[in-house]
Structure formats: C-alpha cells, structure tokens
Amino acid sequence: MKFIKSNSGSLLIMLLLVFLLGPQMVVQVYAQRQASLEVRWMSVNSLHSTFAIEGSEFEMHRTGNESEQSDGMRWPGQFTYQDNVAAKSMWIGTTEYYENTLSSTIPYKVVCVGPKRANPLTEVMPVEFKLIGKFTSPTVIVDLDPATDNILNDALDLEDPTIIPDRIILNVLHTTIGITVTRKIMAFTQQNHDNYYIYDYVFKNTGIRTVGGVPDPVTLKDVVFHFQYRYAVGNEAFKRGWFAGANISWGRNCVNDVIGQNPDNAEMRAMLSWYGPHSGSTVSDWGAPDHLYSGTLGGCQYIGAVTLHADTSPSNKTDDKSQPRTTMYLETDSSPQALNQYDVSYMTRKYDIMTAGHPEKTHAEEVGDSFADKWGTDAGGYTQGQGYGPYTLAPGDSIHIVIAECVSGLGRAKNLEVGSKWFKNAGPFILPDGSETTDRDLYKELWVKTGRDSLMKSFRNALHNFSVNYNIPQPPPPPSQFTVKSGGDKISLEWSAEAATAEHFDGYEIFRAVGKPDTLYEKIFSCTAANVVNTFNDTTARRGFDYYYYIVSKDDGTTNDQKPGVPLVSSKFYTMTNKPAYLRRPASDNLSSIRVVPNPYHIRATSLQFRDAQDRIAFFGLPPVCTIKIYTERGDLIQTLEHNDGSGDELWDSLTSSRQIVVSGLYIAYFETPEGESTYRKFIIIR
Q1: Which of 308, 309, 523, 554 is the most exposed place for a label (fewest CB within 10 A)?
Q2: Closest to 183 in 3D by CA, of 170, 197, 166
Q3: How far is it, in rounded angstroms, from Cα 594 to Cα 601?
C-alpha cells in the first residue's frame, strides 16, 4: 500500500469553521452554496461521475450551479453532456427515538443527505473520504506538456496494488441518529464490467452523534435505509438545443420501472429509468433525437440500480430476498425536501415515504403508452425510491447492503448510425431482430428500447461480479507512460513496456480521433506479443488537423469469460490525450512558398476543410520565425500572430485580437521575418 497524499484538509477546515463560527453558521453558509464540501471523481472506466463527502450525491453537489443540475453518471464517458442523474439522497430513519434537542421521545427520527441539500456537522459528519487506486494513472505527454484529464480527475489518496477493483472511494460519516455509515464505491475497468459502480454500505449503531463525540449507543427500532434516485436522461439533447417542443431534461418525462417486487419469481431486484417521449415533441421523440441537423440521439440511455445483497438482520447475514421492502416512486418536487431533523411532523412524512411498500402499479405501468409528462401533477416528474428494513439495531449491531448502479444503451457508433438513418429517412431500416420495416420511427424506437436489454445484462454482470467476490478476470495494466510528439512528416508515439510482464499479455492497440477527443476513435495500430514494439509513427496524419490518441494493452483472449477469444484490454481512459498533436511541415527559406488554406474559406464546406475545427485557417510554407499581421480589406489590423516554433505551419481560428469571430470579406495576411523580409497574401472568408 502506497500513501499518495492527505485528504484531511477539508475536514480540518470544517472543524476550524465550527470552532470559529459555530455549527449553525457553518450549516447556513454551506446550505446556501448547495455544493459538496469535497468530491472525488470516478473516471477510469466508461461511466464517469463524482461522489460527495456527505454520503450521497445531492442536487448540484459538484458545483452548486443550476446549469449543472443534470450532473453525474455520464455514459459513454468520453462524450460531452452524457449525464443521467439530477439528484440522489440517503435517508436513515427510526421510531420511538429520544431526541435530546427536544427533550422528548419522538415517534420518528430521520436524518438525510439530499435530495436537495446536506447538513454536514449537524446531521451527517464526514470523518474519512479517500480515493484508492490499484495503480496510479499513467503519465501522458503531448509535445512536452501533460495531456490527461486524470491529473485532476484521478488524483489518488492511496495506491494499493492488493485491491481487486481499479478504484475504490472510501467514505465514512457519523450521523446524529447514532449510526455510522461506511460507504465503499467500487469501479472496474474490465470491458464487461465498466459501466457500473458497486456501492457497499455498512450501517453500524455506534452511538456517535457529534464530531469527535463519545459513543453512547441505544437500541434503535424499525430502522430503515432509504435511497432516492432522480434520474434525468436527455441532457445532451437539452444542452445542445435539440428538444423538439417543450421537452425537459431534469426528469419530468423520465419513466421509472421496477422489477422483482415479488421475490418468489424474481431474477433480480432492480429499478430502471429511461427518457420517455414528450407530448410536446413535433417528431417521434424516442431517444430525444437531434431533429434539426443530424439525428444524433441525445437521450437513449437506460439507467438503474440492482440490489446485490441486503442482510436479513444484524445476526443473520444471509441475503434477504424480500429487500428492498419499499420501491415506491415519489413526487420529485412536492415530496419532502428540507433537512428539518427536529420537525416531528416533517420527519413523519419522510418515514411514511421510506416505508410505503410496493405500488400496485409501477410508474411505467401507470404511464403505459401515454406520455410521462401528461401523467401526474408534479412539475419535476417522479423519482425512484427504495427502502431497506425495518431492522432493530442494538448497540454495536450493523447492517450490510450492497447495490450496483448501472448505465447502458446504444453505443455511440450505433447511436449515430440509427439517428442518421432516421433523420435522412434512408432505409433499409433493419430492426434489432433482423427484420425490415419502412417505418423510420418504429426503427428508431425499437433500437432505443434495446437499451433495456443492455441494462439487464449489466445488472447480471454486477450480480456475477459480487457472487465471485469481485474476482473477475483482469486485463493487463496500461503502459505507465505514453508520449506523443508532433513532427513535420509524422506524429511519433512512444510508451513504456512494463505491461508486457502481465500474464497472458499479447501486445498493444492504438486508437486515434480527428478534430476533438469527444468523438469516435479508429484503430490505427496493433501488435502482438510475438512482434511487440514500444514505438509507432503515425504517417497517415494530414496537415491542418488535430489528432488525439489512446493506447491499450491487451491479452490473448483466453481470460474473457463472457466472450471467449475476445481480448481483455486496459481502459482507454487511462491514456486518452486531451491535447492535440498535429503535423508541422518543415520551415521554408523562401517566402514565395507561403500559402493560405483554405482559400476561399467557406463556412458550408467545413467537412472538406478542417472538419470539427470549423473556423480554422492555416498558413503553410512559412519561415521558421516570422510575424503574421492580418488586415481587413480597408487596412484595419485585426490580429497579430507570432510564429516562432521553427516549423512551416501556423494555424488561426478566425478570431480577432478582441476574440471576435471574423465576418465575410477579403483579408490580407502580411508576413515579416526578423531580418526584414516581407510578403503578403490575400484570402477570402465566406460565412
């Protein structure tokens, strides 16, 4: 076990604030922020999310900004705006509780984290919060600069090569009800298990009710542990303005279903949610498609949670198949939101929700073939709820509950294929079962609905992983160093060799994206153990384009228990670059070779120019050092570029010195070397 760094700073600050300001003032300031005192990222597999030190991911916990209301459970993780959750909560309740603050026994005591806020120090009291990794993320360098999101998002507190998951978040907190919560969140990068987290909870009656308090446990009756999940699929459509009508992404049109309410014939105990088409849409709204430009599906994910284990009682640790006892959906906005742990009537309402049992019909059955936004009266839609218990906890007793939370659906490539064919009305429309239809809306709907089957498979994978005590086959580790270097006629890649010592190791694969990292990647290199190398020159790159890369280690396919023969590979998120590499032509010694590309520039021809860098203009054939001044046709200087990298290339993104995009017109680029040589070129921009 290797100690990386201390994470106790925020806890010390909290204690200092309590000492200086008093707990009530700290709580008031914190509640106004509506953001967690501290978060940890999980981002090394295809599911990316942050987790809060307070024990549950309440609304806007990461930033406190309303623009990030849908924030978390991002899948697929490499693409922008893939968030699928707006808020979560963890409530713990008991009955016949003597409340010192009220000097009386109250019928119900409930402490809460979320769904809107949390009260650290006076309701939940974090005492430990750390990110533990099997190994430190690789060093990734592009043109001498660090080039990985993991510098910020995967900063380990501890390195422990003995753990089985790739990452574990350890989160311990006391509560004013006297129950200490130990939450372990586990992430796996093996490709059959990389789209879920496993939450391992131990709830122990320690009797510690304050920061640094002395244990004073009493027997707690009818204890219930309740979790809420306000899922909100469709964030990409919302953020990019694709909604066709009055659609919303914070859960109003979210449909919630439950399976396994009858444990006698249940394959699993799970709940799931998806984007339900909105009644205000002007097109077939399954998958929240981009109906304006491309057909890309902005809400085709299915998300949910499956129970892996719930203790029968403190003395009987076998799995109680009747748990959770409550799977009632609840109103998102009109159900209790505040954190009034001393308001008896308010806590009674909360406990009633926590013990509501199972609905006669699930939310999905109530909605049926109608629209979710037309069913019910709550402006925020409906939230999943599940309650475990009731349990009686004597002093020292504990309850163990394990839940897996998963996201699945159409992969990005299939998403783009289905959405594009739907948008262009370009058959043939082949359905998931292999049959064909002429109905493009039916085609899109049935492909989106395959996400439910994909989620069920993810649930089964999580159940299997838990059943084997997490001893699933592991891929070889990634290279610990990955370096990319731009050149004049090639982009050079180099990586370290320690992965070759792993059992069943069988080489590397390199993938490349063009224009931006938020896109699909293509494989451009592969080697086996028989011809293994640790360098590669990308000679197919073209000048004027940005390139992003990642490298994975792979095994020989003999360890894949789900897809025999298919190699297990290390996670691409360990080595994915976030800074571009690009070809740089050698400098010219003749000013007559200078060219402006494209010329003319036409906004409607970006697919033939620099693709995703749609405003880019390139100056090629430059001397190693020169000054480039760009003027309007009437002689106004709008931008000055200093070219000094020794190459023959310089790129300009059509921005003036005041960061304004240039308009259509004729422009003049003036080039001058330090020796006083000069020339100019005219070029046209059409927008």
Answers
A1: 523
A2: 170
A3: 17
C-alpha span between 76 and 47 (Å, rounded): 6
Q: Residue 112 and residue 118: Cα distance in Å, rounded? A: 7
CA angle at 505 for the pair 501 and 508, rounded to the nearest 5°: 105
The closest alpha carbon to 161, from 404, 464, 480, belongs to 480
Six-digit token string for 590: 């003749």
Give the DSSP H or E segment for 414.
helix 412-424
**451, two tokens:** 């996400």
Residues of the chain by 3-state class (helix, strand, coil), percent to 5? 15, 35, 45
Cα–Cα distance for residue pair 354/108, rounded to 1 Å? 11
What distance lies between CA 641 and its chain's CA centroid?
Answer: 37
Q: How far is CA 191 from CA 46, 138, 169, 581, 662, in A?
A: 9, 19, 20, 27, 45
Cα gap 638→630, rounded to integer Å? 6
Which pTM does this prediction carry? 0.87
- Condensed to tens digits (0 to 9), the pLDDT of residues 248-277 reads 667 888 999 999 876 665 689 999 999 999
Rounded mean pLDDT of 408-436? 97
pLDDT at 27: 47
Q: Quick one: DSSP state of residue 91?
A: E
Sheet holding 104-113, edge to edge: 104-113, 85-99, 220-231, 382-393, 330-331
Query: By C-alpha distance, which of 494, 511, 575, 580 is closest to 545?
Result: 580
Q: Which pLDDT value is given to residue 262? A: 67
SS3 (DSSP) at 408: strand
Closest CA to 477 of 455, 505, 449, 456: 505
CA atoms within 13 A on the CB side of 446: 14
Can you tell me the distance from the alpha carbon of 511 to that of 538, in angstroms, rounded to the nearest whole number?
A: 11
Residues 6+ apart with CB under 8 A from 148: 137, 138, 139, 140, 575, 576, 577, 578
Question: What are the CA-CA distances from residue 55 to residues 92, 112, 117 (Å)?
Answer: 12, 10, 11
Query: Domains of the chain (ranges plus CATH)?
Result: 2-135+149-409 (no CATH), 481-574 (2.60.40.10), 591-686 (2.60.40.4070)
Residue 152: partners with Cβ closer than 8 Å, 6 or more residues away: 41
Q: How confident is the model at residue 129 (pLDDT cuts 50, 70, 90)?
A: very high
CB 499 within 8 A of CB 478: yes
